[in-house]
Description:
The protein is α/β, with parallel strands linked by helices. It has a single domain, classed as Rossmann fold. The protein is built from 8 helices and 7 strands. A 7-stranded parallel beta sheet has the order 3-2-1-4-5-6-7, sandwiched between helices. The longest helix has 29 residues. It is globular. The model has no long low-confidence stretch (mean pLDDT 97). NADP nicotinamide-adenine-dinucleotide phosphate binds next to helix 1 and strand 2.
Amino acid sequence: xxxxxxxxxxxxxxxxxxxxxxxxxxxxxxxxxxxxxxxxxxxxxxxxxxxxxxxxxxxxxxxxxxxxxxxxxxxxxxxxxxxxxxxxxxxxxxxxxxxxxxxxxxxxxxxxxxxxxxxxxxxxxxxxxxxxxxxxxxxxxxxxxxxxxxxxxxxxxxxxxxxxxxxxxxxxxxxxxxxxxxxxxxxxxxxxxxxxxxxxxxxxxxxxxxxxxxxxxxxxxxxxxxxxxxxxxxxxxxxxxx
Length: 242
Ligand code: NAP
């Protein structure tokens, strides 16, 4: 059996990624933080489509929880390697910097950036030994362009982009690739309160994207077909260039 971990896999973009990667034949480890019902629903949909998976509940902003969960899984699956890692879980807590609370800066950095470090560091060693791996990080247009009101989120996503480029070079020889996808406006719970009818004027394609359109690109980068692509950032934003 081949294993893939999708963080924040229970809802939104992560859920669509779980379903697409299951089609590649992977047993999906669906990570989430709190919403058990949504996670169960996602797992059921994977199974309905003929795939397999299991739930892996931990908070990606908590390094102790990450370590405990991944160590426990390895103990139960000593011969298995998680060869695909999708670092997707993320949050935003927007405010102009003068109004930003210290805890909102830290929460966003911990959840979006530190999680990349702790989870990737834990799993990449097996990928290197195995001489195969695919790491895909879900970043954002904010991490490329910077968006006002999102200094915390832009810093975190920009940090993941830079770290991905560095790591890609560290491990390219081991046949482990590291890439990012940078969505623009995608219809999920995260963007629920945004007005598509006002914002679509900024987007050449005149609409928000959907989670499946992101998941298709992620699935390609996570597949053996993307064998010569590493250190890249693919924008998925309907032409909303920087
Ligand atoms: P979403 O609909 O809010 O879903 C977030 C997912 O992440 C949920 O499965 C949630 O699990 C999980 N999650 C959140 N915090 C977590 C934590 N600390 N530990 C473990 N899981 C956690 O978000 P989305 O729109 O799909 O966004 C997915 C990724 O795309 C994020 O990295 C986001 O920054 C990025 N992105 C989104 C957009 C957009 O327009 N939607 C644009 C650019 C980039 P629970 O349900 O258990 O909380």
